[in-house]
Structures are given as structure tokens and as C-alpha cells.
Amino acid sequence: MKLTISTNEFYRIIESNIVDPKNNEELSLLINADLSKIQFKEHGHIYNLNLSRSCFDNVDLYNVEIHKCNLSGASLRQVNLSRSKISHVNFTDTDLSGANLAYVKFSQCIFKNTNFENANMEGVDFDSIGFQSRDKFIKIENAKFDGAILKKANLRGYNPKYSKSCLDLTTSSLKNVDLVGALYDLHTIFPSDINPQKQGALLITPGVSLENMDLSFTNLYRANLSGANLKKANLTGAMICSANMSGTNLSEAIICYEKSRFDKDLYANLKLSHSNLQNATIVGIKPDNTLMYMDGADFRKAKLIDCGFTYMELNGALFANSVLNGFDFNNSKLRGADFCNASLRGCDFSSADLRGANFDGADLSGANLKFSQLNSTDLSKANINGVNFQGAQLEGAKMPPSE
Predict the structure, then answer these.
(1) Is residue 260, in this structure, part of any structural domain at all?
(2) Residues 331-370: pLDDT tens digits?
(3) Cα(384)–Cα(161) distance, rounded to whole angstroms?
């Protein structure tokens, strides 16, 4: 018979664990305990607890953090763990059937004989699953995903830090699972009876075609989509931090910042060199001094709303005929960039490298070019009324003829 633990008693034990982690007598009360009556706090933390064989059935654990806990043999049927962050947890023989695991991030957890039957796992993120260390490889072993919803789940197995990393599902059961929009790569190993593409999953690999695909709020962290076709794809709220999208076709795509479950800057270290962003809609990209690589990217006719391009690599980028009034390009590298006939009124190019940029027909009126590098840049056909050239390097620059 399980000992029923009240909400107050549970938090008292947690607090005593923080004060005296060696108080084994108190902590042992949580093993094989009935915790189904506890009202957990949103954004709460559950750390370093042995909760093996405990019961959390139907408990609301929305948006909590669970770290270094033992939940082996525990019952979490119908539990709500949506948007929670769970790391270094042992789920061996754990029952999560019917649980709401939407957008949960699992990091370095152990899943052996785990029951996910009929669970809502939309957008779930298996991060660093499939290995425990450089030397010891761990699978998801004998897990049951039958009837589970895995829409937009991150099932990619590749991790550049570990060459042998993969997500191995070969011993698990995935009968009647919903894989529409789930992400996988060449390091994801499915059971032989599962054809992920036929079931609507999306292969993430260089050169792939994902035209018109809904990738909103998916995790594409460190994904290699170089040379891929993402024309008209929806990347609203997607994590594309450290992704390689060099040479990718993103014409008419939607890249829109929206606050989501991801902690990192959604776009930090993103590689978009020589990508096609013509007619794309790009909203709210403000990396706050975070480097992005966009040399040679084509922004012509792109709809840029509330964006900032500070500290960017934009050498040779194409902005011809664009309306960029008031945009911030300070400290960016823009050598050879094309601003032909662009409207750049009031833009901040302070400390930017603009050597060899094309400003033919551009309207730079009121722009800030303090301390910018304009050596040998041709401004002779640009409107430079009211431009601030204080401290700018103008050696060899061509200016409009004085009236």
C-alpha cells in the first residue's frame, strides 16, 4: 500500500532535501508514495529525488523542471507534463500512457521498457538521447509508443560532438503512431515496419525538398539543410540556432520570431550564406550582437519587419530596391553588398564595413555612417543629404558632385 503524501508534506520534504541532502529517512517517504493529490507549482523544480514506484497519475506538472531524479517503475498515467524540461531522469519501466508530453524537452534521460502508449508527444524534443557518454551507447530500449502523437517531434539523432550518436528506436513499438511533421535524420533508426516518410515525417538532410512545409515551432538546432528547398516553408518560432542553411532556397518563406519554449536565441550562429530569401517574410530578427552568417544572401523583395542586422556577416548580400528605412546595420560586415536603389533613410551603418558596396540610386538621407569603412566606395549616385560621416574612412570614396 502506498503512503499518500500531501502537497505541504511534499514541499516540506523537498525543502529539507535542499537544507540536508543526506536526510535519507525523510526522502525515503517519497519512494513508492502516492503523490497523485499534490498540486505542483508552475515553473517548479524537482531535483535529486528518488521517486521510484511512486504514483503521479493525473497530476498537473505543467512547465516544471525535473533533474537527476529516479522515476523507474513510477506511474505517470494521464499526467500533464507539457512544456516541461526533464534531464538526467531514469524512466525505466515507467508508465506514461495517455500523458500530455507536448513540447517536453528530454535531455540525457534513460528510457527502457517505458510506456508512452496514446501519449500526446507533439513537439517533444529528445535531446542527447541515444548516448550517455563518448564511450557508452544507450538506446531507447523496448519502449511502447503505440497510438502516441509525435507530430513535429524532434527525433533527429545526429550530434556533432559525438560522431556515433543516433536515436535508435529499433527495439521499440510504434504501431499507429502519428508522425506527421516529425523531424528525423540519417542518424534516426526506426523499426523495420515503419516508413517515416510515408507516415508524414520530414527528413532533415542537405539538399532535401521541404517546399510548403509547416516547420513552425520545430527544433532545427544544428540542423544541416544546406542547399535544401524550403520555398514557402513556415519557420515561425522555429529554433534554427547554429543551423546550416547555406545555399538554401527560402524564397517566399516565413521566418517570424515568436517567443517559444526554447531558451537560446532562435537565430544565433545561423548560416544563411548565399541563401535565396527573395519575397520572404522576415519578422522580428534582432540577434542582439549575436553573429549570423549571411554573406551573399539575397534579400531582394523580401518583407523585412522589425529586424536588426547588427554585427552580421553580410558581405555581398543583395538588398537592391529594398525599403530599409531606419534599419540598424551597425558593426556589420557589408563589403560588396548591393544597396542599388534601396531606401535607407535614417539607417545606422556606424562602424560597418561598407567597402565596395553598391549605393547607386540609394537614398541615404539622414543615415548614420560614423566610423564606417567606405574606402573606395562609390556614393556618387546616392542621396547623402544629412548623412553623418564623422570618423568615417573615406579614402578613395566617390561622393556626389557638389551643386
Answers:
(1) no
(2) 999 999 999 999 999 999 999 999 999 999 999 999 999 9
(3) 49
